[in-house]
Design goal:
heterodimer; A: seven-stranded mixed β-sheet; five-stranded mixed β-sheet; B: about 425 residues; alpha+beta; Chloramphenicol Acetyltransferase; 3 domains; four-stranded antiparallel β-sheet; elongated
Chain lengths: ~325, ~425
């Protein structure tokens, strides 16, 4: 058992898979000699050498074009898109190419590619470098989408993503890179499509993802301490495939559902879950489904404005308390 | 060794059922009485409960699959016996993909209204639990109102259930899987199953009939003078309003005027006190072409003239026939009128709609020989005669009060200068 930061877990996850399978290669902007602009890949170049760990030009299209080609021809690439916002630059590759290869070729081609990308806000990078875009990726048929919230999940989901035969987008959260957590020794492999109940509770279900997970947990403790509300907190972890069994099971128990989403409100991932729950568990609901989200705005860079925009533990407590009492 | 679970007999004419959903997975511990699976037949959708406890070791008929009555659908280990090695291997995979075209919806059960009496709202869970456990929705709503709550949620219903189960003895044990709700076997042609509206009406009528000591009184009214006014106003009324002027709005108007002298007629009674209503909200019983009865409300009827009442009643009747009544349209009546005149019956003794304390009935008004007293003596003459009757709750007041009200009502109907209601009439 060791205590690792989320950023160190990224390195360890990639290294674990590169050591296991020499088809695994890694490429991105400043990822090799510089160890990544977020220092998430320090030492990989030294450990695995210039053939398997490559710096690329500043071109997201070049990165994904090369990675998709490599994946189609037998490698298992991990490609870094530095800021998740930049997936918009290479969106054709994401939405039309890698996600449709298996289907368009009638299974003759596959694309075992992992895109890891720095998602989310809270670090004052402004409207074009802070967006939480997991909902953009969730909507594409042919892509799997995960977003770990802890170091151990970073490693486990990275391994599961690398071993999956199809493209997976792994959203790392920029504001979580410094977070620490216990990580067991040895190989860690998780699975895609499984949510985690992090805190069991009876009164309501709070779903959260990535940076919103620690905030939801903090809110749940405050709700218990100050308002006697026993909230169940679930880390969704995997948007595609979505673990509806765990979510519906929790709603069946508590009857109340809250989603805490960093993505902008309109068409956020929680809207899809709200729809599923309304469809499939209507008779278990004991009140309206409530979404706590960033508003539908470009994210401000100013400290206090960004803090105001993203859901905070205080906002979660306040909302849950008011809704449950109302 | 284990027990087998079979598709239960779901009704006399039902041979098979489609399993919609399993509420338990292989490996789950199940307890006697817990809902095990949901099954749909051509008649009903019901939840089937376990009659044994133990570990569910095998599901043989999955969701979406039809099984014949008596067919084994699952196996339960008896708990003490070893779970066979196969059980673990056959456990459902958590990461199983759902086929892309499979869309799941909550079964659209008719679990009762989302809004109850007095605007109390029910959450979906509350509606499901009330229906599944046969609680009295009105009673749950009253309890919520006593607590000052505007909403009934799962917690409220569960505590009502707990109160009930602690009050009553343990339910008898069943020996076959017991459908949660037993369907009524219907043979085409000889049984009419009541629709949901009719069933609700039936329940309420029976409850009112049982709990209220009804007294019925009727008074004979001479409508001749009123009918002359109606005759003179008819053509211009029809031209202005697009429908014909009947006796009903006159009677409603007269009833409102009489109530101002006898306010206890328009009141709500809870067994101990009469709450006199400041405004008269008239419930008008409307027959839905023999397919049910609704009683939409004309609010503040005391403020309306004959023409105003005619229009308000007409609006509510049309909404009722079109099935467009809202909950507001159906709640808050303080006094009701049942009108059966169209069929020529002489009088009707209607059932009071609690918590109201009285209901008026009007029936056929037709020419009859009657004695007319004049200064020149008594004559027999053809007059427009009809009975106006009233059922009242004897707990709320006595026969003399109701009789005095009816007498006043007759006086108004016979002697009021009805022409004044139609200022533009010639």
């Amino acid at each position: 058992m060791a205590e690792l930061t989320y950023r160190e877990a990224v390195t360890r996850g990639i290294a674990q898979e590169m050591s296991r399978d020499e088809r695994v290669v890694f490429l991105g902007e400043d990822v090799a000699k510089a160890g990544g602009v977020f220092k998430t890949t320090v030492g990989l170049y030294e450990q695995f050498g210039p053939l398997r760990v490559r710096d690329t030009p500043i071109s997201e299209e070049a990165i994904l074009g090369a990675a998709i080609g490599a994946a189609m021809t037998g490698l298992r690439p991990i490609a870094e898109i530095m800021f998740a916002d930049f997936l918009a630059v290479c969106f054709d590759y994401v939405a039309n190419q890698m996600s449709k290869l298996r289907y368009m070729s009638n299974g003759q081609l596959s694309c075992p590619l992992v895109i890891r990308t720095g998602n989310g806000g809270g670090v004052r990078f402004g409207a074009q470098h802070s967006q939480s875009i997991e909902n953009w990726t969730m909507m594409i048929p042919g892509v799997k989408v995960v977003a770990p919230s802890s170091p151990v999940d970073v490693i486990g989901l990275m391994a599961a993503a690398v071993r999956d035969p199809d493209p997976v987008i792994l959203h790392e959260h920029k504001a979580l890179y410094a977070f620490k957590g216990e990580v067991p020794d040895g190989e860690i492999v998780d699975k895609l499509g499984a949510a985690k109940i992090l805190r069991a509770g009876r009164d309501c279900t709070i779903l959260a993802l990535a940076l919103m997970v620690p905030r939801a947990l903090e809110a749940a403790e405050a709700l218990q301490r100050e308002h006697g509300v026993d909230a169940e907190v679930i880390d969704v972890r995997s948007l595609v495939p979505l673990d509806t069994r765990t979510i519906l099971g929790s709603v069946a128990k508590t009857g109340r559902l809250f989603t805490v989403e960093e993505n902008p409100r309109l068409c956020g991932w929680g809207a899809e879950i709200a729809s599923i729950v309304a469809d499939e568990a209507f008779w278990d609901l004991d009140g309206p489904i409530v979404r706590i989200t960033t508003p539908h705005i470009p994210l401000p860079a100013a400290d206090h404005l960004e803090d105001l925009a993203l859901p905070s533990a205080t906002r979660i407590v306040d909302k849950v308390r008011r809704v449950l009492n109302g | 060794m284990g027990s087998t679970i079979i598709m239960p007999q779901l009704g006399e004419t039902v041979a098979e059922g489609r399993i919609l959903a399993w509420f338990k997975s292989v490996g789950d511990e199940i307890k006697e009485g817990e809902n095990l699976f949901e099954v749909e037949t051509d008649k009903v959708t019901i939840e089937v409960q376990a009659i044994v406890s133990g570990r569910l070791s095998e599901i043989r008929v999955g969701p979406g699959v039809i099984a014949k009555v008596g067919e084994v659908v699952a196996v339960v280990g008896d708990g003490s016996a070893k779970v066979s090695a196969g059980a673990g291997a056959s456990a459902r995979k958590v990461d199983q993909w759902r086929p892309p075209f499979e869309e799941v919806s909550s079964p659209s059960h008719r679990f009762g209204p989302a809004k109850g009496p007095n605007d109390i709202s029910f959450t979906p869970v509350a509606r499901r639990l009330i229906a599944q456990h046969g609680l009295d929705l009105a009673e749950v709503a009253r309890e919520a109102e006593r607590r000052g709550a505007k909403r009934v949620d799962g917690t409220a219903v569960r505590s009502a259930l707990a109160a009930r189960s602690s009050a009553s003895a343990e339910p008898p044990r069943t020996i076959a899987p017991s459908p949660a709700r037993a369907p009524i076997p219907v043979q085409e042609g000889d049984v009419v199953t009541l629709n949901a509206v009719r069933q609700k009406t039936a329940e309420r009528l029976a409850e009112n009939w049982r709990s209220i000591p009804h007294v019925f009184q009727a008074i004979e009214v001479d409508f001749t003078a009123l009918n002359h006014v109606r005759g003179r106003a008819k053509a211009s009324f029809a031209a202005a309003n697009g429908f014909s002027l009947t006796f009903l709005p006159f009677i409603a108007r007269a009833a409102c005027l009489a109530i101002s002298a006898y306010p206890r007629i328009s009141a709500l009674f809870d067994g101990k006190a009469l709450a006199l209503s400041r405004s008269i909200n008239l419930g008008i019983a409307v027959d839905l072409d023999h397919n049910g009865l609704v009683v939409p409300v004309v609010r503040d009827a005391g403020e309306l003239t004959v023409v105003g009442l005619a229009n308000a009643i007409r609006r509510q009747v049309e909404k009722a026939k079109a099935g467009k009544l809202s909950l507001d349209d159906l709640s808050g009546a303080t006094y009701s009128i049942s009108n059966n005149g169209a069929f020529g019956v002489s009088f009707t003794a209607p059932i009071i709609n609690a918590p109201q304390v009285a209901i008026l009935s009007t029936d056929a008004i037709r020419l009859k020989p009657a004695v007319v007293s004049t200064d020149e003596g008594d004559f027999v003459a053809p007059r427009m005669i009809g009975y106006v009757g009233q059922s009242f709750d004897h707990r709320a007041f006595d026969g003399a009060y109701s009789a005095a009200f009816l007498s006043r009502l007759r006086q108004i109907l016979e002697t009021r200068p009805w022409d004044e209601e139609f200022p533009s009439a010639p």
